[in-house]
Amino acid sequence: MLTIWGRLNSHNVKKVAWLAQEIGMPHVRHDVGGQFGMSDAYLALNPNALIPTIEDDGLVLWESNAILRYLAARYAAGTALWPDDAAARAVGDKWMDWQFGYAEAQRDCFINLVRRPPETRDLQAIAASAAASAAQMAIVERALQRSPWLSGDNFGLGDIPMGVYAYTWFTLAIDRPALPAVTAWYERLTQRPGYASQVMIPLT
Ligand SMILES: N[C@@H](CCC(=O)N[C@@H](CS)C(=O)NCC(=O)O)C(=O)O
């Protein structure tokens, strides 16, 4: 059975737990990282001292997006999650790498508003981060005006990383410009059981 190590209030762990639900893969998840710490046994699996890590059929793997690609290729090949056609896969694939840049833009909002007590928050950093996130989301908006999903005509792997960050964006107490296509996409995501159970949890 698939094993996932990582606390669920981590963006990168959410991606993997959500995909496991989309594929319908039974799995066990162990809380690691953040307030749960990391044992020597865990660090032997992942020398980066980061989460998530998985073990599947003898394979130990870290890097969340590599995990998504592995699980989809192995367990969902030929479906919209992992189309046979390389060009069709690439449509969503680019958004997976693009998300890491987005995460940088949103980072100061998240750290200050979620991880720090109010008296130590850097309001300038929050404002700059909110503006940077909005500029990035405007790029997502233009893509979603052309197709309903970041992966194209169907929900796919490319929707998962940014889908996780969209929940944070819509949940944080920050100024957000009106982005109708992003909002409609987000509302469709909230209807997916795996998103509701693995992503829409308290940010803290
Ligand atoms: N590129 C890595 C980044 C992993 C990462 O930064 N994970 C964060 C949580 S989202 C982490 O491990 N933080 C330390 C901790 O939780 O103790 C991936 O995508 O898996």
TrEMBL record:
Tell me where in this chain the GST C-terminal domain is found: 85-204
Q: Which organism is it from?
A: Sphingomonas sanxanigenens DSM 19645 = NX02
Highest taxon listed in the record's lineage: Bacteria
Specify the protein name.
Glutathione S-transferase
- Keywords (A to Z) from UniProt: Transferase
Transmembrane domains' residue ranges: none
Q: Does the keyword Transferase apply?
A: yes
Q: Which residues form the GST N-terminal domain?
A: 1-79
What one GO molecular function would you report for this record?
A: transferase activity
- InterPro entries membership: Glutathione-S-Trfase_C-like, Glutathione-S-Trfase_C_sf, Glutathione_S-Trfase, Glutathione_S-Trfase_N, GST_C, Thioredoxin-like_sf
By its UniProt entry, which SUPFAM superfamilies does this protein fall under? GST C-terminal domain-like (SSF47616), Thioredoxin-like (SSF52833)
Q: Gene3D superfamilies, alphabetically?
A: 1.20.1050.10, Glutaredoxin
Entry's family note: Belongs to the GST superfamily.
Question: What CDD domains does the annotation carry?
Answer: GST_N_2
